Amino acid sequence: MTLIALRTSRPLVTVEEAAGVARELYGLEATASILDGERDANFRLSGAQAGTVLLKCIDAAAAGAAIECQVEVLRHLARRDPDLPVPRILPTLSGAALGSFERGGQRHATLALSWLAGEPLACERREPPLLAAVGAAIARLTRALRGFEHVALSQALAWDVRRLTDLVDTIDAVASPALRRLLRAVDRRLEAAAPALAGLRAQAIHGDCHGHNVLVSPVTPGPIAAAGGSTDVSGIIDFGDMIRAPLVLEPAIAMSELLTERVSELEQLDALLHGFVSVQGLQAAEVDLLFDAITGRHATTLLVEAWRRQHDPEGATVLEAAAAAAAESLARLMAQGADALTARWHAAAGTHPSRLSLARRRTRWLGAGAELFYAEPLHIVRGEDVWLIDAEGRRYLDLYNNVPHVGHAHPRVVAAIQRQTAVLATHTRYLHESILDYAEQLCTRLPPRLDTCLFVNSGSEANDVAWRLASFATGRAGALIIENAYHGITAAVSALTPGAGGVRAPWVVALKCPPRAANCETIADAGLLAAARADVDQAVATLNARGFAPAALFLDSAFTSNGVFDPPAAWLGVIIERLRALGTLIVGDEVQYGLGRSGSHFWGFERRGFEPDIVTLGKPVGNGFPMGVLIAPRSLVEAFQAGCGFFSTFGGNAVAAAAGLAVLSVLERECLMANAAETGACLQRAISSLGSQQACFGELRGAGLLWGLDVVDAAGRADPERARRIVNVLAREQGVLTGLEGPQGNVLKLRPPMTLRPVHVQLVAAALAASAASAG
Ligand code: PMP
């Protein structure tokens, strides 16, 4: 094995000889006392004339270029950051940085350094502010080392975690099978992390900032005044293990050693890391690898000790205590797991995990099937009005999300939620005003018949309860929907949400949607209406044949999952009239269109010209606070309550009510419905005038701030592949977020917060044109 520092090989020099060297080479009259050292014979020289000096006697043959490197780095640091508390070189009588003497036929080099006051950090102290100062001081050293180069920095050092594989054969020398397993796991992880580690920014690092190499001055503040740190750190010594390596190894080694000196609390590691990044920021990808670097350093300590037990028993003794602590710490870190600790260190470092590591973690905890948008998934960390901001600070114009109805993180809604959570967050079984205020405000905006509310937590739940209510009120068990409908995820409403396989529940039948067209009103011909009548009769007959009668028809008033369009009012009129005659209730699902999105009407059903028996609300009502509401005639609700009882723990809680009230108030204050009409018209004009060169865009349908834009091929047919490419290009290259919709998945869905303004429309039009050119 060719690794340096596996074996300890200290030159044999007596204190008398050291005192002689001091006198002859440096002109210092001093008494010498021996100090610890693995590879060098180190002496403390004390004497009135000399002050205190550290004399290093180095095996010149073994160290070679490494001694020069130590000299050069101390000179570099003295120039780069003169106040950094690192040793200064005391020249020999002839003015050289290195001296040399011979003993027993062997040549030794000498290096005399100024003595730095203070006690090793390893001794006692562990308080977080001090550790933060230590982190800051190490970071300051790291900054000062930037740009330092020397051939010896590529030395093959046993302590370099990147060389752990070279030590792996030694695992067999570890007695404990459990520890052997842990060491193999660390090695596997490090091997997998090697390419990522190699891709990080690298520079000269001290490489050995353990508690005996960092001096602190408990009484008199030392000379360092690290930016953001305190004056407690009086020295960083021992530049014998320097390597060129990823910068992140510097704090990783310090953190690992902190654990190894005495198994420390995680808060202490956080403090050190926090101090480090206050001076030298870390990148997300660097923090992602801290766990492997720290556990790798533990593994190195354990394997170097195991190797020495076989080949260098005296050298092994020096590491015995550290190895025992490393084993204990390693078991603890591995039990806590990389994910939890990495998340913790990201918080301490003020970074966010990289997208790759997040995606891996997501698959681990949410399953491979958890849907993610875009070929290059986004790591969104903040929302602001119509903008979403990712972990790197890139801003995306959000044309997709309708949940933040009045804009992402609207300050008034946020404040209302915060205020209420601080006071009371409980259920609706006590008297409380705000839920009544909210119910009243909703009902005054609805037709008078719809006058009583039930509160739940999502659109799905609202539809689920609507289904129970309708079924209870009519005593029937059959349901009708429009083909390709989406109504939610509970057992009942997922049956009302057919998906690609079509309707599967025997108690549900889908009605055919008329042909999708931008100007449907003009095609409401007699043929279409006759077909609608026949379709309803057929659907009811099918239900009857299966032993069901139609309790309700569910209608998404925006026809979103049909690709966004306005079916002819007469078509819907025929259907509703026929079903009403049969005693079927009409459920208006306002989860998409409610609260003014169309720009022309507060409710989607008003725009479609029908009045439902039950209305369900979701997504936009809480602006991100999970809420669902059902509104129905009082007689229906009271009969249901009496017959079935109804209570939802979180539904209508005081915080939800505060959020709902705030949304309604902002909608009005900021005239957002009028804005939806104005901005929507502007958007329509801009998209329509994109011109014929954007041939991949077909029909544009919609109103207000909900639009569907067909993506088509050269022959004008639906082109879902092209649509997917455009959505990805829009996100990645243009920073504009959209989604796909429609039975064939070729409709670009434009459904931004209601605060999208005409100024944003210019961006949208330019982005659509560019994406068509690039992905079309
Ligand atoms: N109805 C419609 C029309 C919807 O679009 C959705 C959600 N996409 C739902 C109901 C279900 O709402 P939630 O996801 O909040 O349960």
Can you put this structure into words, describing what you see?
The protein has 776 residues and is of the alpha+beta class. The chain folds into 4 domains: 15-114, Phosphorylase Kinase, domain 1 (2-Layer Sandwich); 121-349, Aminoglycoside 3'-phosphotransferase, Chain: A, domain 2; 459-617, Type I PLP-dependent aspartate aminotransferase-like (Major domain) (Aspartate Aminotransferase, domain 2, 3-Layer(aba) Sandwich); 672-774, Aspartate Aminotransferase, domain 1, CATH 3.90.1150.10. Helices cover 43% and strands 16% of the residues. It is built from 25 helices and 26 strands. The strands form 6 sheets. The chain has a 7-stranded mixed sheet, sandwiched between helices. Strands 1, 2, 3, 4, 5 and 6 form a 6-stranded antiparallel sheet that branches. The two termini are 58 Å apart. The model is unreliable at 219-230 (pLDDT under 50). Residues 458-460, 463, 486-489, 556, 560, 589, 591-592, 618-619 line the site of 4'-deoxy-4'-aminopyridoxal-5'-phosphate (PMP). 4'-deoxy-4'-aminopyridoxal-5'-phosphate (PMP) binds at residues 458-460, 463, 486-489, 556, 560, 589, 591-592, 618-619.
